[in-house]
Amino acid sequence: MAQKKTKQADRPVYVVGGCRTPFLKARGNPGPFSAANLAVQSGRALLARQPFEPDAFDEVIIGCVMPGPDEANIARVAALRLGCGKHVPAWTVQRNCASGLQALDNAAQNIATGRSDLVLAGGVESMSHAPVLLNLLMVGWLADFNRARNVGAKLKVLTRLRARHLQPIIGLLRGLTDPVVGLSMGQTAENLAYRFNISREDMDAFAVESHRRLAKAQDDGLLGEIEVIYDEKGHFYAHDDGLRRDSDMEKLAKLKPVFDRPFGMVTAGNSAQVTDGAALLILASEAAVKKYQLPVLGRITDVQWAGLSPSQMGLGPAHAMAPILKRRALTPGKIDYWEVNEAFAAQVLACLAAWQDADYCRSELGSDNPIGDIDRSRLNVDGGGVSLGHPVGASGARIVLHLLHVLERTGSHRGMASLCIGGGQGGAMLVERDA
User: Pairing between strand 298-307 and 14-20?
Assistant: First the structure.
């Protein structure tokens, strides 16, 4: 059931700038950037363009799911490194895949209610740096070894060391598995494919189209929110590097299912890529816009969070977007563009199917009639998580930032951004700009 929205003050919330790093595909080894470094590289370019100093922010809010051991409260680490100064408070939020969206929501609430006027907010994730942990057997063995008081005692403990003690816990795999229902995120996508009769061909076609759209966006220079970043060796990164320009149905059909072998349909090719990246936005009150004469990219006009069964978590966008439409007396046709994060091709297709299913809308969404159809030509027009990746802490901020750029370049008025969230939730944000 959708969370009820609390009434906020009438102060408008403006997005006055934003940028992101390229999204870099994880390829086995830790990538060139830690999460904190990604956040700083994204923020440094953004703040350098502003007419105010970094210490003018009232606060810094960043979403991150898996910060490294040297990145506790990563928002504070990034804020200090960006020159915001010791007097600007900073805090980190975590709502799984929507952590970046959560940061924007918190920033917007504080501006709307008068607590803040200028906030740096967004998300970051370096999934290639996800921790590899010791299992409990090994932790216990180390404790015994450290307690041993002499060489003889330590040798005795050493004789108890077995291969099973050395079996690591892969933090990323654990993090992508729901501990309540015991299903991986990919298995929940398989559930939705079965429930809504989504075929392997449907999923693969969606994936091919995602790559095609991203390739066109890169070729046409439509991703201006990306800043070039540099690693410690002087190498530069200018584009989302998970793009597969040669992706086609024949190649995807050869891939084996990953999450439900051998009979499943969700593959690495029709799922979001494991990726590193950051996206930061500047949110401002009307007073801050006037004080610094800031250009307005758009307004955040509504936000909704929803909960549902963890086993069906991919339907979160359908649950979160519906209350916004109802509250604003809107139909899908009144939304000019949509960004629904592509965790899995099956998951996005299931959301589209759910809104056209009368029984689902009535029983799960409380709507007497089907909510309606989303025009696929206005959904994720420049690709999505399947083609450019899904760094979980950053994606919520990325889709809002890119949606605002799409509205700007097309001269459009209204857009909706939404994500499914591991654990059985959904988040959605309505943004508008003067067309």
Answer: antiparallel
d(CA 37, CA 231): 9
Q: Which of 64, 97, 351, 361 is catalytic?
A: 97
- Residues spanned by the domain of 327: 185-221+301-428
Q: What is the CB neighbour count within 10 angstroms for residue 432? A: 18
pTM higher than the cut 0.70: yes
Q: Contact 34/98 with Cβ under 8 angstroms?
A: no
Q: Does the annotation count 97 as an active-site position?
A: yes
Q: Which of 285, 251, 243 is nearest to 119 (CA)?
A: 285
- Residue 379 has what DSSP assignment? B
Is position 342 within any domain? Answer: yes
Residue 31 and residue 128 in contact, taking contact as beta carbons nearer than 8 Å: yes
Confidence (pLDDT) at 9 = 45
Among 64, 84, 351, 420, the one annotated catalytic: 420
DSSP for 145-204, written as a single string: HHH--SHHHHHHHHTT--GGGG--EEHHHHHTB-TTT--BHHHHHHHHHHHTT--HHHHH
Question: 119: which 2 tokens?
Answer: 């906030």
Indicate which residue of 211, 319, 390, 402 is catalytic.
390
Total number of domains constituting the chain: 1
Domain-located, residue 96: no
Active site residue 235: no
* pLDDT above 50: residue 1: no
Per-residue pLDDT tens digits for 65-103: 999 999 999 999 999 999 999 999 999 999 999 999 999
Query: Is 351 a residue of the active site?
Result: no
Least confident of 157-166, 168-177, 340-349: 168-177
Q: What is the CATH number of the domain that holds 411?
A: 3.40.47.10
Q: CA 90 to CA 60: how far, in whole Å?
A: 4
Position 204 in a domain: yes
Q: Supply the pLDDT for residue 419.
A: 98
